[in-house]
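In this section we walk through a basic example: taking a raw amino acid sequence and producing a predicted 3D structure, encoded as discrete structure tokens. The instruction is simple. Fold the sequence below.
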Amino acid sequence: MSEASTNPLVVLRSPAHAAHPARNAGVPFDAAWIDALRVNHSAVERRTATLGTRRAVKKDAQAAWLLKAITCIDLTTLNGDDTEGRVRRLCMKARHPVRADLLAALGMAPGAHAPAITTGAVCVYHRFVAAAVDALAGSGIPVAAVSTGFPAGLNPHELKLREIEASVADGAKEIDIVVTREYVLTGNWRALYDEVRDFRAACGEAHLKAILATGDIRVLSNVAKASMVCMMAGADFIKTSTGKEGTNATLDVSLVMVRMIRDYRERTGALVGFKPAGGVSNAKTALAYQILMKEELGRPWLEPDLFRFGASSLLADIERQLEHHVSGRYSAFNRHPVA
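The resulting token sequence is shown next.
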């Protein structure tokens, strides 16, 4: 039997940078889609409470799921003290996210049955897009740029469009935009649609990831409606948070958002990706999100073309868990630096 048929780590593994599905072209604005949306908060809480108890992933299977999680990470640095040197180190970590000795011990050294494991993307401010593109040249790892006045999203609209265009011109393949929360909080769904539609046009061939900032809009029914409007306007991904809100990604808001992705697929046939961001910092939480995606949307949403984690510290904890799987011992975080 081949290694691919006997090693569960290989079975779950697929190329990190498979082609994106067809772009979400969006649909004309239809207020009836929005008005009909309701969310039962208690039912959401009951559903998410079972994610960590109804399923258990152990041993080799857990290692395989964690390796898969690495390929879905948007390795991120969005700090005021970022430098080009830090971004380039981050890009090197994106190319080689797991120590070579651990991959060899797991039977996952790059080869015919195990393509090289990399992160799904590197996410930076516009200032560092060109440096990240240069550092990742030849790797196939895309650069994602946060845009449109991230994180508050209160810049003038025309300035937001120019920022998107500048990041695309510098080589960004994905643009993480922030919506104007006022439109959500006041129920101005047409304005939200028009805004995201403009952002989509400015992105050109780059994929648009719409950040809802769910910690600011709070109410789950508004999360559902904002998710649907952004997809109607052509968002290729919907994303929970900037990572800068008081509350960032939670399983409750994530369940609501992925149910909207399922609803949109049933209405249009389009596949839209999902990205939880902020607060996903350990392997246990990552597994819970992977289970959510598998159960709610199916196997395709375990791949980086439809699922991403927005994270910085998550990778270090996953690498620690993989070392424990190999050696039976936990190592210090400083043995697994991100950048």
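Looking at the output, two observations stand out. The first strand starts at residue 73 and ends at 76. The mean pLDDT is 92. In the next section we compare this with other chains.
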